Amino acid sequence: MFKKFATGAVFAMVLTCYSTIAFAGTVVTITRPEGDEVTYNQTYMICGNTDKEDVTVEVKVYDPSTGGYVPLYTTDKEYGWSIGSSGMFMKEVKLPYFDANKIQVVSYSRSAIDEQQDNRFTITVLKEGLKNRLVNGVIKIKDMVGHGIFD
Amino acid sequence: MGFSTREGSFMNREKLKKFLLIGLIMSSIMQVGILWDFSTHGLPSYFFRAFQDRVAPVSASIKKMKAELFSPKRIIVSTGASNWIVSKEGDTQDVYKALWDDAKDYISKIIAGEDIENVTMPDEKWSDIVLLKSIGIELDTPLSQDMIGYFLDSKVKNSSGAVFVKFVIAPWDSVNYNSTTVYLLDSNMHVYKYSLAMSQKNLKREFYDAELEKLNKLQDQEAIRNYMVFSESKIKLSYPIRQDMLVSAYGDKYDKLGQIDVTIPENFHIAPGSKLLDVESKLGGILGRDGDSYDIFTDAMGTVTMKNLNNQYRVYTDGVLEYKKTGNLTGDKGSKEQAFKNAMSFVEKLGLIPDNVQVYLSGIEETRDRFKFKFDYKAANVPIYFDIGLDGKNGDKIQNAIIIESNNDDALSCYWVVRNIELVKDKKKQYNVNFSDTLDKTFVEYPNIKQVKDFSIQDVLVGYRLTGENVGLKIEPMGLVMGGNNSIYSVKLPVKKGD
Question: What residues does each domain of chain B span?
């Protein structure tokens, strides 16, 4: 039992750290998100830039039913794309789940196969009701301040 | 009796002298008049009109032009998460008017120096300010407080010499429902913050909230595009790029846009060797009431020259009108506002603005003895950029529809690219207006762009580009990258497959 767990854990660690082990440099700087984020919208803009000329980026999302990462399409129905001459990309993706969306961004240099990078982050989508409750809550507090309740 | 007869004859002689004297005075005034305006015959009524004009009320068309010239490049409504451009036409025209009237009131109060609290903020704060829940107003050209005061008929207190390019009105920025915060950005990227009381006529926060809801619904119906402020992307590039730039990145890449049909007006088509009478009948209108005083001739290339003692007009075969005030140039440089009034009067006098466009002030420059004003057009809110080479201008290019130099007394020179501009009806296509796609294409088509001195990206937008070659053709909208130092790089926008 212990042996089985240990093997699985080590395998997962290898997967997660693959990019760090395989390629220590930076293929792409993912500028958005900067880390795990929370949003009310079901779409999210992923942004990044590179100074390399032949970079492809692919986005995947964790599928709990299969336990693996599956392609996540942009709103333009793209799964992978090449970064153009501007050296940047801005791609909007539709997040499939309320709550946590585990996102994987794989970027690699087409001319140097060993230059591959793997970024992972979680974007949590809050439901509209919760958003409204939060917004209304803020408004109510502001109203109280504005009408001198706290004076 | 004899005495009375002698007396009568004396009286008659005196009367005759009086008439002769009056006649002489009249003819001398006429002569002064003739010399005053060169060979225009008749009473020098224009001599008196010169005085009349100084007190005459500003004409209705000048007033209309003044209001049109001072309109924003864009009004941006921002929720902090979404950014919408409120159009002057269509579903948002009412809210556009309400927001612009409200903004003008706040701007008037600021330049009038009313008793309002203000602070200068660190420059780098601007990137945060444009992300606030707010109303953003962008101007087509930076304007000094004096010029804004002139446009708004508002007093100016302590004009600092700063020229403003953007305003952000943030009613939600204040805890107090009866006040609002206005941020100003000048052309040196300095930021000023003003706290103003809301007056009775100002829009209330409830109005703004209701409009935000409406715009949100329009976005859901895909009737209005949600834009991104570039700084939200946090992207860092090897070349400078304006962080407060609004970019088209969300949603559908395609926008439905029309084409324009651009032609040289019929009366500006002068064939080489045309008879002078024909030339006069076609172009005489631009000379106005002094038309008779002009000598008109054409050269072998077909260029028409019309000149009198003080003025010279030249019409080139490519439909460019050139004007120069000749003779002894008088007048001080004067104030920018007076020089601008003279430029506007000249524009109005010639009356060559196409019917279906909106004219806007696109630039102001100042030299030792004069001001230069540049005017351009928009068709259905899409800007039109000119890029026309002209032999008469030493090979330089004309990059504006109208360029006028003027001073305190008069318009001194002008280049006017005279065109008829019509929107092509029922010919709209879906064009890819995506920001990064346009930028990628620009770098491919202009591979050395990054090596250009002081290159930066100031804006990426959709516009029409008029060159000397595409006259008489239907012109499609282009992707335009404003590269700083007045450079514009244009690329074709891809059309959606099947469109």
Answer: 2-49, 62-251, 252-264+318-499
Give residue A132's pLDDT: 56
Predicted local confidence at residue B40, as pLDDT: 44
The answer to whether B436 contacts chain A (CB < 8 Å) is yes
* Contact: A49, B437; criterion CB under 8 Å: no
Q: Taking CB atoms and an 8 Å cutoff, what residues of chain B touch A45?
A: 228, 232-233, 249-250
Decide if B286 contacts B352 (C-beta within 8 A). yes
The span from the CA of A137 to the CA of B423, in Å, is 49
Shortest alpha-carbon distance between residue A31 and chain B (Å): 5
Cα–Cα dist B70/B60, whole Å:
16
Topology of the domain comprising A2-142: Immunoglobulin-like (2.60.40)
Contacts of A76 in chain B (CB under 8 A): 253
CB atoms within 10 A of CB A99: 10
Question: Which comes out higher in pLDDT, residue A128 or B492?
Answer: B492
Dihedrals phi, psi of B307, to nearest 5 degrees? -140, 150
Please tell me the distance from the alpha carbon of residue A55 to that of residue A139, in angstroms, as a whole number.
46
Q: In Å, how far is A126's CA from the nearest CA of chain B?
A: 15
ipTM: 0.77
Q: Please indicate whether, in this complex, the C-beta atoms of A86 and B439 are within 8 angstroms of each other.
A: yes
- The answer to whether B237 contacts A29, with C-beta atoms less than 8 Å apart, is no
In chain A, domain spans: 2-142
Structure tokens belonging to residue B312: 């010279």
CB distance A61 to A102 below 8 Å: yes
